[in-house]
Automatic annotation (TrEMBL):
This is Methanethiol oxidase. It is found in: Nucleus; Cytoplasm, Cytosol; Membrane. It comes from Halcyon senegalensis. Belongs to the selenium-binding protein family. Catalyzes the oxidation of methanethiol, an organosulfur compound known to be produced in substantial amounts by gut bacteria. Selenium-binding protein which may be involved in the sensing of reactive xenobiotics in the cytoplasm. May be involved in intra-Golgi protein transport. GO terms for biological process: protein transport. It comes from the Eukaryota. It catalyses: methanethiol + O2 + H2O = hydrogen sulfide + formaldehyde + H2O2 + H(+). GO terms for molecular function: methanethiol oxidase activity; selenium binding. Pathway: Organosulfur degradation. The lineage of its organism: Eukaryota, Metazoa, Chordata, Craniata, Vertebrata. Signal peptide: none annotated. InterPro entries: Se-bd. Its EC number is 1.8.3.4. GO terms for cellular component: cytosol; membrane; nucleus.
Length: 447
């Protein structure tokens, strides 16, 4: 069915507004009088959590179990390391918190912190990737919640198998593999982006291959010290032994695939060139690809380029060479009339125009995306991480986030901003906030 409701994580951290983060319920039914509006807000009971990623307590790999339902949404906190379990099954449009795991439990039981991406495991348990230890040093790995009680069970990976950094992950049960990406060292990245950090190990650059059943590392790929692999996705076909990972700093997208003897390999398939600029923190502005989404039919791949400001649509083909078929700018740092001047650009002839929808100027670049199951509507928010939002897009922090809808041509390819849809998080009752992750209870392309 078409999505009628979206749940969006929203934070007030770094906005100079001491309000709790909240989960926004968005009306996506075009026939509703509240279409495109926030119809419910579920405030968290604490301040400065930084709600970031979210995930369902049951994913598609659990649905051979007739009792599995998408009725609980898991909200791990990037900064506080707290975990909220939200009941969305009792009242779809008015969810409520049903359980909370305090940071001290995560610290003492797992020696982990700075919680990032969450996904359900085939056995029904919930897996959450972490970026650091309690002190903010880099530390990868995962923690596990019981899929029924949501009690904290402990660490997932075997001892001595912890990567130096972590962020996102995906898995394929039929190939007994889990693949995880790198992240940032929290206590240093939390000070803001500094070009000098590129050579100091602040940004992770490994792609990790795990044995899913043994919970052990089997392979590691070093993608380069200037890579920062963030978003990683398998194709949706349950038997497909391939996927893609986007590297935020290098602008490279790698395809990973299974080869002989159960080993995995990587190859570069997309490279988005940096732009020579003036008026920015560095003379070259990299393609900072924050998110990657694959359509349910495995036909298209979508990238959000947070710094340059564009969303890209690539057609996936059997020759493993993605072809750019759609592109649209929805903000970014290189807009005409802004402080940044593009001196040399391998792709564009001129700087893009600012985006205005329903009289609102959209600041910031595209960050998190969510694609409808039919592939025709791509929703996008523009907050990446509050500290970096404040550094690169101060107007975004002052004016608040926006959630946009991009109409997709699923036949020939092509992207168009829907000028009739805008969720303006600058008009929140408690002041402008920053919106990030998006999920649909009816099912979405990332869970």
């Amino acid at each position: 069915p078409r999505e009628e409701v979206a749940y969006v994580t929203c934070t007030y951290r770094e906005t100079c507004n001491d309000q709790p983060d909240f989960l926004a319920t968005i009306d996506l039914n075009p026939r509703s009088p509240c279409y495109g509006q926030v119809i419910h807000r579920l405030p968290m009971p604490n301040l400065k959590d930084e709600l970031h990623s979210s995930g369902w307590s049951a994913g598609c790999t659990c649905f051979d179990n007739v009792t599995a339902r998408r009725n609980k949404l898991i909200l791990p906190c990037l900064i506080s390391s707290r975990i909220y379990v939200v009941d969305v099954g009792s009242q779809c449009q008015a969810p409520k918190i049903c359980k909370m795991i305090e940071p001290v439990d995560v610290f003492w039981k797992c020696n982990k912190g700075y919680l990032a991406v969450v996904r359900s495991l085939p056995n029904g348990d919930v897996l959450i990737a972490n970026m650091g230890d309690p002190a903010g040093n880099g530390k990868g790995g995962f923690i596990v919640l019981d899929g029924e009680t949501f009690d904290l069970k402990g660490n997932w990976e075997n001892k001595c198998e912890t990567p130096p950094t972590g962020y996102d992950f995906c898995y394929k049960p039929c190939h007994n593999v889990l693949i995880s990406s790198a992240g940032l060292v929290p206590k240093i990245a939390g000070r803001g982006f500094c070009p000098d950090d590129l050579k100091k190990g602040v940004f992770g650059h490994r792609l990790n291959v795990w044995n899913l059943s043994c919970r052990s590392l089997t392979q590691c790929f070093d993608l380069g010290e200037d890579s920062l692999p963030l978003s990683v996705k398998f194709l949706h076909n349950p038997n497909a032994a391939e996927g893609y990972v986007s590297c935020a700093l290098s602008g490279i997208i790698y395809r990973f695939y299974k080869c002989e003897a159960n080993n995995w390999a990587v190859e570069e398939v997309i490279r988005i060139p940096a732009k020579d600029v003036s008026g920015w923190i560095m003379p070259k502005m990299p393609a900072f690809t924050v998110d990657l989404v694959i359509s349910m039919d495995d036909k298209y791949l979508y990238l959000s380029n947070w710094l340059h400001g564009d969303i890209r649509q690539y057609e996936l083909s059997k020759n493993c060479k993605p072809r750019l078929v759609g592109q649209v700018f929805v903000g970014g740092s290189i807009l005409r009339g802004g402080p940044v001047t593009v001196c040399r650009d391998e792709e564009l002839k001129c700087q893009p125009e600012p985006l205005v929808i329903k009289c609102k100027r959209v600041y910031g670049g595209p960050s998190k995306m969510q694609l409808s199951l039919d592939g025709k509507r791509l929703y996008v928010t523009n907050s990446f991480y509050s500290t970096w939002d404040k550094q690169f897009y101060p107007n975004l922090v002052r004016e608040g986030s926006a959630m946009l809808q991009i109409d997709v041509d699923t036949e020939k390819g092509g992207l168009t901003v829907n000028k009739n849809f805008l969720v303006d998080f600058g008009k929140e009752p408690n002041g402008p906030c920053l919106a990030h992750d998006i999920h649909f209870p009816s099912g979405d392309s990332t869970s």
